[in-house]
């Protein structure tokens, strides 16, 4: 069964496409794919911004920038005049959380939150925070209306599903019964607490104080009191961004490598998007190994290599090349079997295959070459 071909240029040229989300498990080339798509879109006339989550700063280097910050910077290079514009930024998770607090909590409560040790911990290490802040930043970029295309490189999570689950997980965690109980001492007088929950709560707080330490309990309680006033807005923005992600103007591109775990993860994500009626554009399979001399099978190449080694000891380089070709054919066949299995399970998903590059992508020329491969040029 042959899968449909992903029409990358058609997707980029469609003015109704406002957001492209590149998602997939870690290490499959999401950052490079997102950057290549954004560059190609800008060269084809779109006002484009790419949001990367990659802490290695490879995108900045590839775009000729020393660094990227938490706000978009325009990419301007010598002898490069795209028909549109390209802007780029790298998510600063803590800075985004701080900006959200400053915008929505009011000056006094914002100062309380930013100085709170409990907040300083969860703003950088709470489960789901990075994924939520990526969605928060996406919402901010979309709200400005400055760009007609936003390309998002999702966080390098263990699971691609973390990006979709993060707002609900973080919201539920902050709304959990435990944190609400921690907030109770700051919300009510001692008499009020005893009236509401009696001796049991006093025993609870003593137990928690013993485990966490009295100061952490105090910090958590103060955090929840200050955060409570903006919690509704926190959840409202998460729901608004979720609606943006499910709108017709958004396109999800699942990125994978031709490996069992990556394609299995891609399959889970495709099923999830389908189950929630979210707009899947297709699958990008990075670092494939196509074979040019298709008539020379692995068996024929190995047989020829063995014959040369027996008969002509002066031709070791030819024999080595034949063995390399045989390995390449075997690898290509393995990849083809894996992709065939994916296609059987998801027959209508469009696929773009990007052959492995001879060297790492570190400049605009490399990103353009990736874009050409994505588009099948």
UniProtKB/TrEMBL annotation:
Keyword terms, alphabetized: ATP-binding, Nucleotide-binding
InterPro entries: ArsA/GET3_ATPase-like, ATPase_ArsA/GET3, P-loop_NTPase
CDD domains: ArsA
Origin: domain of life: Bacteria
Molecular function in Gene Ontology: ATP binding; ATP hydrolysis activity
Coiled coil location: none
PANTHER family: ANION TRANSPORTER ATPASE-RELATED, ARSENICAL PUMP-DRIVING ATPASE ARSENITE-TRANSLOCATING ATPASE
The protein, known as: Arsenite efflux ATP-binding protein ArsA
């Amino acid at each position: 069964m042959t899968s449909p071909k992903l029409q990358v240029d058609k997707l980029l040229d469609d003015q109704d496409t406002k957001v492209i989300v590149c998602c997939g498990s870690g290490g499959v080339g999401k950052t490079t794919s997102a950057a290549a798509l954004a560059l190609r879109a800008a060269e084809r006339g779109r006002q484009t911004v790419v949001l990367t989550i990659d802490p290695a700063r490879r995108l900045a280097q590839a775009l000729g920038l020393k660094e990227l910050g938490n706000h978009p910077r325009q990419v301007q290079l010598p002898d490069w005049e795209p028909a549109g514009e390209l802007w780029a930024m790298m998510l600063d998770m803590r800075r985004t959380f701080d900006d959200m607090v400053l915008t929505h909590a009011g000056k006094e409560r914002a100062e309380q939150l930013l100085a709170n040790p409990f907040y300083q911990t969860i703003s950088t290490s709470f489960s789901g925070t990075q994924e939520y802040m990526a969605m928060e930043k996406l919402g901010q970029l979309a709200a400005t209306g400055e760009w007609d295309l936003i390309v998002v490189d999702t966080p390098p999570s263990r699971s691609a599903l973390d990006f979709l689950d993060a707002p609900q997980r973080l919201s539920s965690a902050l709304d959990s019964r435990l944190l609400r109980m921690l907030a109770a001492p700051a919300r009510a007088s001692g008499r009020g607490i005893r009236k509401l929950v009696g001796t049991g709560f006093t025993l609870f707080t003593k137990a928690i104080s013993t485990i966490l330490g009295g100061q952490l309990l105090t910090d958590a309680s103060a955090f929840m009191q200050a955060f409570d006033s903006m919690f509704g807005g926190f959840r409202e923005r998460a729901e608004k961004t979720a609606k943006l992600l499910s709108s017709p103007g958004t396109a999800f591109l699942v990125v994978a490598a031709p490996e069992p775990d990556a394609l299995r993860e891609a399959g889970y994500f495709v099923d999830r998007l389908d189950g929630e009626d979210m707009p899947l554009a297709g699958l990008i399979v990075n670092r494939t190994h196509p074979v040019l001399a298709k008539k020379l099978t692995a068996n024929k190449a190995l047989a020829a290599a063995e014959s040369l080694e027996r008969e002509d000891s002066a031709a070791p380089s030819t024999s080595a090349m034949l063995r390399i070709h045989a390995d390449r054919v075997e690898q290509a066949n393995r990849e083809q079997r894996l992709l065939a299995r994916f296609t059987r399970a998801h027959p209508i998903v469009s696929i773009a295959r990007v052959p492995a590059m001879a060297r790492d992508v570190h400049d605009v020329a490399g990103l353009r070459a990736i874009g050409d491969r994505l588009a099948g040029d």
